[in-house]
Each structure stands twice: as C-alpha cells, then as structure tokens.
Amino acid sequence: xxxxxxxxxxxxxxxxxxxxxxxxxxxxxxxxxxxxxxxxxxxxxxxxxxxxxxxxxxxxxxxxxxxxxxxxxxxxxxxxxxxxxxxxxxxxxxxxxxxxxxxxxxxxxxxxxxxxxxxxxxxxxxxxxxxxxxxxxxxxxxxxxxxxxxxxxxxxxxxxxxxxxxxxxxxxxxxxxxxxxxxxxxxxxxxxxxxxxxxxxxxxxxxxxxxxxxxxxxxxxxxxxxxxxxxxxxxxxxxxxxxxxxxxxxxxxxxxxxxxxxxxxxxxxxxxxxxxxxxxxxxxxxxxxxxxxxxxxxxxxxxxxxxxxxxxxxxxxxxxxxxxxxxxxxxxxxxxxxxxxxxxxxxxxxxxxxxxxxxxxxxxxxxxxxxxxxxxxxxxxxxxxxxxxxxxxxxxxxxxxxxxxxxxxxxxxxxxxxxxxxxxxxxxxxxxxxxxxxxxxxxxxxxxxxxxxxxxxxxxxxxxxxxxxxxxxxxxxxxxxxxxxxxxxxxxxxxxxxxxxxxxxxxxxxxxxxxxxxxxxxxxxxxxxxxxxxxxxxxxxxxxxxxxxxxxxxxxxxxxxxxxxxxxxxxxxxxxxxxxxxxxxxxxxxxxxxxxxxxxxxxxxxxxxxxxxxxxxxxxxxxxxxxxxxxxxxxxxxxxxxxxxxxxxxxxxxxxxxxxxxxxxxxxxxxxxxxxxxxxxxxxxxxxxxxxxxxxxxxxxxxxxxxxxxxxxxxxxxxxxxxxxxxxxxxxxxxxxxxxxxxxxxxxxxxxxxx
Amino acid sequence: xxxxxxxxxxxxxxxxxxxxxxxxxxxxxxxxxxxxxxxxxxxxxxxxxxxxxxxxxxxxxxxxxxxxxxxxxxxxxxxxxxxxxxxxxxxxxxxxxxxxxxxxxxxxxxxxxxxxxxxxxxxxxxxxxxxxxxxxxxxxxxxxxxxxxxxxxxxxxxxxxxxxx
Lengths: 755, 165
Ligand code: FES
Ligand code: FES
Fold this sequence. Notes:
The complex is a heterodimer of chains A (755) and B (165).
Chain A: H1 16-21, E1 36-42, E2 48-55, E3 65-67, E4 92-93, E5 99-105, H2 109-117, E6 118-124, H3 131-136, E7 147-155, E8 167-175, E9 187-193, E10 197-202, H4 207-218, E11 225-229, H5 242-257, E12 261-264, H6 267-273, E13 280-288, E14 294-304, H7 312-322, E15 332-339, H8 354-372, H9 376-383, H10 403-414, H11 416-426, E16 432-445, H12 451-455, E17 458-463, E18 469-472, H13 482-494, E19 501-503, H14 522-543, H15 553-567, E20 570-575, E21 584-585, E22 590-591, E23 596-609, E24 615-625, H16 632-651, E25 657-658, E26 661-662, E27 681-685, H17 703-706, H18 708-720, E28 726-727, H19 731-738
Parallel strand pairs in A: 1-12, 8-28, 10-11, 14-15, 18-19, 24-27
Antiparallel strand pairs in A: 1-5, 2-4, 2-6, 3-5, 7-15, 8-13, 9-10, 9-12, 13-14, 16-23, 17-18, 17-20, 21-22, 23-24, 25-26
Helix pairs in contact in A: 4-5, 7-8, 8-9, 8-18, 13-14, 16-18
Chain B: H1 3-8, E1 11-17, E2 20-26, H2 32-39, E3 58-61, E4 64-67, H3 73-76, E5 80-82, H4 93-103, H5 112-125, H6 131-137, H7 149-164
Parallel strand pairs in B: 1-5
Antiparallel strand pairs in B: 1-2, 3-4, 3-5
Helix pairs in contact in B: 4-7
Bound molecules: FE2/S2 (inorganic) cluster (FES) (2 copies).
C-alpha cells in the first residue's frame, strides 16, 4: 500500500476541485432569504468629538435600518487584547474611516447614496500622523504617553563594549505600510434570532477570535454565538482581527432588523478602512571588531500602531525577537515600542513585525561589511548563529543548524561570485546597472514565548461508520493548504489513504478551538495535535480489540462501524502540552522565544535602469531550511507567494497617506506585482527535522516575507553604490539619489555623468 | 428615483449564457458581473476590484476575454457569454484544471476562475505558448497568493498535455 508515503507527497488539495471549477463558495456567493445589505458610515476626520449627526434629504430613511453605538447590547468594543477599540464610535473618533453608524437596506445600490446623505459635524482635535509626531507627545492621543507597548531585551553588558570596538556602525532604516490586498475583500453575513443568538458566516482566519468578540459585544453566553468560516479568498493576516469588526457590524444590523444582513466591502472601502502592515523605524548602533565580528549593539525598533492597540503589542513582540536576525550577539540591548497615531489601526500581515526589523538588520549587515572592508558574504559568515549559541533572548539553539552551508549553497544556486564579478565589469558603461544582494534570516514558528501555553489549543478527530475520519479544528484554509496538510498528517497517523480523511468546515458549533490560524503555527503546532488526536482513534479501536495492527481501510471501516454501533460515536481529542524544555520569562523577555526557527538565505539579482529609474528583479533564489517539507508543491507555493508579496513591499507597494487616510485606496493606484513584474522565483529546501512539529515540520508561511526586501536593496546598492535605507524604494527615490545634478555626493563616481 | 421608476427604467435583455438563451430584466447600466451573480446565480466570476484591474470577474463575451465588472448589461444584449461554470465542456478545461491542481496554481482560489478563463483564452489562440506568452496572456489577472510561478507552470503543462493528447 502507498499509505505510508502521504507525508512529503504532493497530494491533491482537498478543496482544489471546487476552486478550479468555480464551485467553491465564498461569503459573497451566499445569500439568505430576506437578506438585507449593510453599509458603514465612517468618520471623515482623523480625530475629534462627534457633535451632531444629520440624516440628509432625498433619502426615505424609513426604508433603512440604522444602528448606532446605543444599540449595542454588551460592551462597545472589539474584544482582542486591550479592548480599547470601539465597535462604533459614539463620542470621539480617533482615525479617518472609523465606523460611526450602520445602515441596512434590501437593495445594495441604494446604500451608497444613503451613506453619502449622512453628514456628521465634529469638533476636531489635533491629530498625530507619524512615529516622530507621536513620540514628541505634543498631544496625547492614547494612554499616558501615546505608547501601546514597550519591550526591553538585554543580554550581556552592552555599555562596556563600545570601548573595545574597532568600529561603531550606525544606521537608521524605515519600512512603509503595506496593504494585504487579498483579492477577496472582507465580508460576512450575520443572522440573529432571540432564541439561538448570533450566527456569522464570513471570510476570516480565526473563528474563535470573532466568537470572543461577539460574546462581548452582545453579552451572550458562548453557545449563543456561532461563527462559520466560508471559503476565504486570501487573508495574509488581513483577516485575523478585522473580521471581528465587520462581523459585529452585520450582527448588530441583523439584530435590529430581524433579518439576515450581508456586509461585503468594495475594494476602496476595504483598502481605506481595514488594517495594513505597521510602518516601522529601526536604529542600529553596533560595536564591531577589526575582523568584522559583532561585539554588541543597541537596536531601537519602533512601529506605528495606528489609533487603537489591537494586535500591535504582539506584532512588536515578534519584531523585537527577530531584530537581531540570524546572528550571534554576545551583548545586546533591544528597546522597542509601538506608538499611537491617528490612522486606522495597523494589524497583522504575514511576518508580523519580523519583515520590518529584519529589513533593518539585513541592510545593516551590508553596512557593517562596508565599514569593516569585508564582503557581505564574509560578514554574515563571521557572525552566524551556531548550534549551542544563544539568541538575543538567550534561547540556546538546540537544533542542528549550519548557516554557513546554507549560505554556500545559496551562493552556488544563484551563481553569486561569477555574477558579482561580471556586473562590476558591466556597470562601468551603459545606462543599466546590475547588482546582486543577499539576505540571511530566521523566522520563529508558533506563538511567541508563552503564547502557545495560553492558547491551550484543542484538536479533535471523529470517525464515521463509513470509516472516514474527519479532522476537527478551527484552523482555517485561506489558500495556504491547511486542509490538505492536516489531512495528510491524520492519514499518515492512521495508516489510511489520504482520501479516507476529511476536514470539517470551521464552525464554532462543531470544531474545538485549535487556536488562530496565524504565526506559521498550523503545520507545526496544530499538526502535532492532529497527529495525536488521530492516533487516539486508532488506539481506541485497538484497545477495544476491534482492530489489529496492519489493518486495511476496509478493516478500519468495519471496526469504526462496530464501535459506533455500541458507543454512539468515535471521537478523540488532543490538547497542547508545552514541551518540558521550553522556558520563557515574559517580564524580562528572555528565554525560549519559539519552539523552532526556520532559516533561510535569499539572493536577489536586480537591474537599475538609469533612464527610467526603475528597479527590476531579474532572478531570485530562495533557499530555506524549514524542517520536513510535508507537501512540496504547497510549500513551494508558500515561498513563491511570499517572495512576490515581499518584492511588492520592497519596490511597488506605496501607501500614500494624507492626514491619516490612505489616498490611493484602489488597485489602479496601489500597485501589487502582476505576472509581468516578477523574476523567476527559484525555490529550494534544505531538509533538517526538529523535534517539535508533526513529522519534523516547522512553520513556513511567513518566512518568505522577511528576506526579499533587504536582499533587493542590498542588490540595488551593489548596482548603484547608493545606500537606500527605506522601503518601498520607488523610481522617484532613485531619481533623486542618482540624478547627478540633484545630488552630487550621493552618486558614486562610477555612475556620475552617465544618466 | 422612486422604486417604480427604477423598475420602469429596467429593460429586457436577451443573451446566451453558457449556451443557453436567457432573458433578464435589468437596468441597462447594471454590470454584467452583477447580473450573472445575482440574477442568474452564476457566482464563479468574482468581484476583486470593480474597476477592471484584477481580472477575477473575467468572462468570455463573444469569445473575447472581458472583465464583467466593466460591462454594462446592455452591451451583452444579443451576445454570448461564457463563465467558468460553462467551460466544463471546453476541451481545454480538463487539462487546465488538472494542471492547476497538480502544480499548485490555485491557493485561495478567488482568482482561479478568471485565471483559468484567461489561460483557456490564451491556449485557444496559441498552441504552444512560450513563458513570455503565458506571462503576457495572464497580465490582466492578479493573484496575491501564488506569486504566479505555479500558475505559469500549470498553463505550460496544460498546453503540453493538449499537444500530446
Ligand atoms: S472585479 Fe472586475 S477586474 Fe477586478
Ligand atoms: S490563488 Fe489567491 S489570489 Fe490567486
């Protein structure tokens, strides 16, 4: 039987056929009888007091259901961490596009006019729009000091290190906001009835986050809130916390109208009002020895959280822990903070703070190399973490890692040395400059520190009388392959063919809380629990004597049938248990930050066109060690997709802000990479099992977001000699730096006089 | 405009959808996308942007690949429209769907109906497309999940399959 080889095989995606035939059901493909459509009236200013709301003429308001904060039966907040974000603003608004009123009508086109007919008078208040403005505290917009959260990581004695340094290397790095730009906008349908409470169907990542938020908003007991995840058209973190907001809105309208209500945003509303990646600023000051070894340093990492706390503390945490990169720091002090501004709250987006702080680290490594006078390759080689050494949080690397070897292989795969030479020669003439750059990095899988212990995830498996085992998890499929990978793991654990395992639609009335579908935790952490739950089924059957080793699917079916005939059902559950050797101190931010890290070296090759000032990525090598690859095609797809998003982050995706509002909230003026814009993305894996995950798998989904941006900017510097420290890097930035008459100093002699 | 005048502004539109004659009552400026999805229950075409950028609403209109979010229904009067649901009989569909599944061409799947229609349209015109042809043929279809590589592979594989079949 081929049963034994399900892990590591590229079996067909569970819901794949529905997707390629157009039969897959997303929330906007669903309608309920008598359903109304909902819309949101939002603030037009960044900060102020609501004075008065006028319902303008030309609209028959009797046709509309109107909901305001007064209609909220429970607590007016989106319950998450600090519960500071209102579901509907009642007195004050703190950012543009903040929801104030909700309208519902049977006819969707009639809503737009009604939304426009509502006018709101404000007493506006001073607003803050950048990290620097927030730090200056000229006005306090949140808490006591505009700060959502601080972390301090200290290792060794940084203050003593400066006098021993041969070089002190400083740098400041910036990353911009980035829109997740899932192709399916946020959307939900909600229904309410007094007896059963609230039911929500939606496009979402974390059914139990929405569940918790609705319980708080409606003051209902757990069993009176039901959340069902529909097929979800991309998420990338953008459907982690926001769905709680839109679900709350639709449910309030459903309660007031007594009818089901659908709210599906159009693209402009989705881009303007929902979360984006946190903009960041990182400062490095590094003490380096004569031969380019890091002796110690200070890192300051600051993110712009927008107007409410939402997930900023957690994003900051991940950014903090990744700030030192894949290197050994004998001494380090990392000070980080998330600050408030009057923009819509920034939120989860693939990588979750790590792409920001790693961008800085990997640009800074190239800077250190220059100052010391060694190559970007050598500086990394001399500072790589090794097994047995400790990270910045003093986590001992127990797994067997060999970053030198990873780097060497990446250089070979990209033909780095030969290209570097060739480009240097070619760049002496012509109107193009070519360059090649690298980034080496890590990404922690699972929740940070004590997070997994708090989540306390529960997973189930249920066998039917037909011998089909159904996996019960709240982990959502939104393209990454959750359904497929978890079924593979269960099938392997049960010794059954892949076809004999299915997965339940995430529905909080059916599946237990296996935690949110975030943080690259699904394959590793939930996967391990699925494995245990599946084994539990098998054990029940063998212990009762209904099944013997080396069974066939037919014998398994017969055993299930018999067991169920006597006992009614055959279910098994597995709960998360923290590995005994994991220690984490939340106060000092010290200890085992993650159960496992994935490691990678990426190489980007670019052309800078000195006529158009555009950067093209010509080739991209992505080499990673992610433990066991459970499904090669899905794994490769995660990497290519992540690299593409990160190329966008580096070179195209520019959120244009004005007074806290996104001005280019359309696909026509916010540019993501299309099929013509991307280089061949060549993906390679180095396999190396670790002890924590199912079959030695580590997280994979976020890793590819971390490396491309610094690799590309390192390549641009290699091509042009100009040190760019901010992304997105747009043609106008290159123009300013490279046009000789604009800026003589910034232009290296090799470029001067040609453009 | 009160509801009755809105009703009276509606017109009868006759067109062929997936090979079947259909008649709908719609305002002439209503989008083909909405008529397909709401009046005819054909939800395979998706709205990603509503302004002709993403291609997730792609359908064939008299054998041309169009974004149905930009087509007023009046323009479809008398025309023949094919959506992903109506493609099952097309000889390219099986190889395309199978290749998309094998190569990982569909992740979240929201761009997939449009992507497959664009691919079928390309393969109808080009027997043996180069990678550059494929990139160009799919240039109007955005995918945020895959980074396109596996989609290119899927389309190339479907083309090879057709040649060998
Ligand atoms: S929805 Fe029609 S092109 Fe995007
Ligand atoms: S598969 Fe998700 S957008 Fe293409």
